[in-house]
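Annual report, structural modelling task.

Input specification for the protoporphyrin IX containing FE complex:
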Amino acid sequence: MRSNGMTMANGSVDMVVEAALQKQEKDRRLLRIWLRVVLFTLFCLVLVGGATRLTESGLSITEWKPIHGAIPPLSVAEWEEEFQLYKRIPQYQEINKGMSLDEFKTIFWWEWAHRLLARTIGLVFALPLAFFWLTGRVEKRLRWPLVGLLALGGFQGFVGWWMVSSGLVNRTDVSQYRLATHLTIACLIFAGCMWILRGLSHHSPDAADERTGRGFAALLTVLCLFQIYLGALVAGLNAGLSYNTWPLMDGSLVPGDLFLQQPEDGAIRPSPGCLHTVCRHAVAYGVDGPRLARHATCPPSRAVPRARLHSGGARHHHAFDACGYSCRARPSGHGAVRAWLCGRPLARFHR
Ligand code: HEM
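The model returned the following structure:
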């Protein structure tokens, strides 16, 4: 009798556990679908952010209106008003003077689309999160990571404006440090979302060794983020055009002129060439060692004199050899992509 009773009790415990597991799996499936939608929207946002940068559209909206800014100018008078605001900033006065209203509209739409997508992603993330939370679908262990991701998204919006504000006075573009922060946070948001999604997915039974696997993955992630940060600094200063030979730059592994005294305030700051050097060395020895080894067997380069790269006509020429490192000048994708995105001839960018 007693053993019969125990068997029945065990049976009902099994059923409760089974039901709980089924519910958990159902909830997780829903969360996975949601996070995939978030990731897809983020991916689009990153593409539009990149296009905003390549078309040099980032400073076209000179005000920070998180809610009202979702509505673009709707009448000719409103367009004129927006254009007048842009005409006040150094980028218009020093670089784009004479730009027509139609040209302004092109750069405006890129920046507006970027900000609108950023707002959309806030909603796509926050509303379902609130729903899943209130209906008890968010496991306890996921609460802090999801709230953290939401907070990071909000912070990214603030960083976006902080970056824009750096280009509205005294400069014709945004600060490279703020740009690099913006890009690195975008990567963190993307990686964080992917990490939570993967944690909700089924895993193979033969998982990698927890200790070594985790440490190595964490190290690689930090190195990649650091490299992305450096890459954005290089991009923000157009520093990628400093040296067109590799691994020697100006005949040396560590070229001169790494630090320059700023004429405005006398401060000593890293030169574009310094950032270029650090970025290349970091990728070679830190993240990308094996490719450097392959470079040793690369055919000799046809180096282009550095002076030519600094002349206006070659500004948007990058150099890649067979193994992906800079050896010879070749028309780059960047200039062409910019021209395509803006629908304007390449010459416009060869200032
Ligand atoms: C979650 C939200 C956001 C994400 C993931 C994101 C991501 C990005 C990415 C990946 C880029 C390209 C960076 C590069 O090529 O180095 C970019 C550029 C840019 N973003 Fe965002 N962004 C977000 C929100 C915002 C917001 C709210 C603003 C404005 C208030 C903003 C302003 C800009 C501007 C102005 C650029 C172009 C920078 C330039 O002129 O060089 N972003 N964004």
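The radius of gyration is 26 Å.
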